[in-house]
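Hypothesis: this fold can be encoded by more than one sequence.
Test: take the structure tokens below, design a sequence, compare later.
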């Protein structure tokens, strides 16, 4: 083939190759939607949990800001009657939509250390991690001890709060969290501690604390500043008698216990 013919073929094929390359770049950009196509950054569960937690925190802040805007607009429309204002304040404290302060204690729960897991390959893995039942047992004991308010991972616990186990993370208000888990309660510290000591479930948990070094630590606090609940108050599973039930999508969760 002559040099002239080779040159002509090159001139003819070069635009086609460039067009194909451009198409690949455009397809890649469309699929990525501006994100990194390399999966290594978020392949670990910890990375996914942290990403979702940050996203949830951002949405929660936006919700709080919008709620404040609504309250300001309501205030501009005129003040409400003093009796109604007091009733609203009392109900807000009971529901958990206002911040509170006071003495109390914090319970921290942790999974067994990685070295303990390696040293006990024949032990059921469920025995070496904290489950939703463990967190629920602590929360229930604190309520029984007269807690005025409780938070988990610095998120206020209200009447509709659900604690769910998904894999080796715990989901609270739709957001996954990894250990350590911190449960904080405001109230009489002696009564709260006694309620923890009297809990049969927590007494059973202490056996695993001794055998497999699960983390269980109670710390007294002289002053706790607990945030208000800033999420939605809509019911997701329960219904109010006399009101029609509205079906809602609920993610499937699995949990295991000792």
């Amino acid at each position: 083939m002559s040099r002239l013919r080779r040159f002509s073929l090159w001139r003819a094929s070069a635009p086609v190759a460039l067009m194909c390359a451009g198409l690949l770049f455009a397809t890649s950009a469309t699929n990525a939607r501006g994100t990194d196509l390399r999966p290594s950054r978020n392949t670990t569960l910890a990375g996914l949990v942290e990403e979702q937690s940050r996203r949830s925190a951002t949405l929660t802040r936006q919700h709080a800001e919008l709620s404040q805007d609504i309250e300001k607009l309501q205030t501009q429309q005129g003040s409400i009657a003093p009796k109604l204002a007091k009733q609203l304040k009392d109900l807000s404290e009971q529901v958990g939509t206002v911040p509170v302060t006071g003495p109390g204690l914090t319970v921290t729960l942790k999974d067994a250390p990685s070295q303990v897991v390696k040293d006990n390959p024949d032990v059921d893995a469920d025995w070496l991690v904290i489950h939703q039942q463990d967190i629920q047992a602590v929360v229930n004991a604190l309520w029984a001890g007269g807690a005025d308010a409780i938070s988990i991972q610095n998120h206020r616990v209200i009447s509709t709060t659900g604690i769910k186990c998904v894999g080796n993370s715990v989901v609270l208000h739709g957001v996954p969290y990894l250990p350590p888990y911190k449960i904080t309660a405001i109230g009489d510290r002696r009564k709260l501690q006694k309620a923890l000591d009297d809990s049969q479930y927590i007494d059973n948990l202490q056996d695993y604390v001794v055998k497999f070094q699960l983390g269980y630590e109670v710390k007294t606090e002289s002053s706790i500043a607990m945030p208000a609940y800033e999420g939605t108050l809509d019911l997701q599973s329960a219904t109010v008698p006399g009101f029609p039930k509205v079906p809602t999508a609920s993610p499937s969760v699995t949990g295991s216990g000792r």
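Residues 100-226 form a domain with the Alpha-Beta Plaits fold (CATH 3.30.70.1880). The longest strand covers residues 215-226.
Hypothesis status: open.
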